[in-house]
Amino acid sequence: MIKTGKEHLESLRDGRVVFIGDERIEDVTTHPAFRRAAKTVAGLYDLKHQRENREILTFQEENQTHSMWFLQAKNQDDLRKRMAAHKLIADQTCGMMGRSMDHVSSFVTGMSTNPSIFDTEKHKFSENILNYYKYMKENDIFATYAVLPPQAARNPEFYQKKNLPIPTLMVTGQDAEGVTISGMKMLATSAVFCNDIWIGNLLPLAPDQVKQAITCAVPCNSKGITMWMRQPISLNAENQFDAPLTWNMDETDVLVMCDNVKVPWEKVFVLDDAVLAREIYIKTPGHCYGNHQSNVRFWSKMELITGLASKVTQATGADQVPAVRETLGRLAALEATLSGIIHGQIEAAESWPEGFSTFNRRMMYAALNWCTENHSHIIDLLRELCGGGVFQMPASISVMHDKDLRKNFEEYFQTPQMNAPDRMKLFRLAWDVVGSEFAGRQQQYEKFYAGASFIIRNHSFREAPWEDLDGVVDNLMSKYDIPEPGIKEAAAE
Fold first, then answer.
1. Predicted confidence (pLDDT) at residue 22 exceeds the cutoff of 60
2. Which residue ranges form the domains of the chain, and what is each CATH number?
3. What is the pTM of this model?
4. How far apart are the first and last CA of the chain?
């Protein structure tokens, strides 16, 4: 089945516990901090029901219709279908909502193509991952993940000295029905709009951290789960004209607190295995599927930034300046570069695991690294092109509601290229990309989207064919040797 937006909003009224400070939120679909972003999410669900989008966003399997991100790719055409679906979803928010419903579902779909990884001598969980994949697919589940320990928990000695429990999430008990977990996990972006939370470990665990080596899925309204929301950004927006992205695209970031949460065995995928807890992502296509989606999502953002740079310079006439055109050309080249890397992941696809096709992992990680390294610089290029224009606008478009103010605004804020309201609309959008609190969150989010830079580069190090690369050097050096003494080539030669 594929849910409608209305059905998804209804599924969020399930008794989940969300806090903004000490305020408990009773209904995230109606609260001022969340309702507009919730409507945006609902719109993404409704997109699949529009006739013109069905072929791109859905597929048929055993007379059932499913969202395209649950498609297990068997060939390059399937990979192309997945990419096209991700792009259409990302384009709806210009890449500003990173944890859309096609992200974590891609992780689970990729994992389901190599389920044997989940079977160990101690636990056989391959059926669990297959059944959870089937459950997500058949119910069009929107899941987020919380796969990092809280920063403070990375110094366990501090807590041991004070005789305090380490705050990171871990298994505190198990019985015939399942396991019990307690502690904190971060950072469950979009959790307030999700049905489930995937709990796991993307960072390596030490051998003695077996109790933290739990991977499972829990409904957002599970007894004992509370979601602690960062300060909502959307509350800063009085209208969409003045804050076009802030208005309805704050996907939220949440710290998940678990207090004796019971997880049934069928929703447990890794237990008491510190190595496997991380390897499930890289020994299956899960990490590749999920981060291909993030590559495509960033591509949509690049298109917005490049288009904004062009429109801002047109609004002032600066697009006629050769140096400005050079900057615009650079941005266009950067956007095309990312597009090429994304398409290359399909053209150089891997036949892995057996019977399936996967995006080229080296190229996917190269794109991930490219996005992390370049986002701040790209935003700075747009910031420079905006100049002081973003500060020269009135505090609010409400000036248009006063007859005298409107007359002055329309006369003095226009340029030969653009009237005053359209110019303000453009610069407000640019500000929401380069300078607002929403923009600041995006800046931090992109820098650490897939982890610290050294983690991302370690992925590239792991996937690089070092034997082949070293062989290029060895092969070249094998073609010459130490020359005999006194022998010189003729000058003509």
1. yes
2. 5-282 (1.10.3140.10), 286-474 (1.20.140.10)
3. 0.95
4. 75
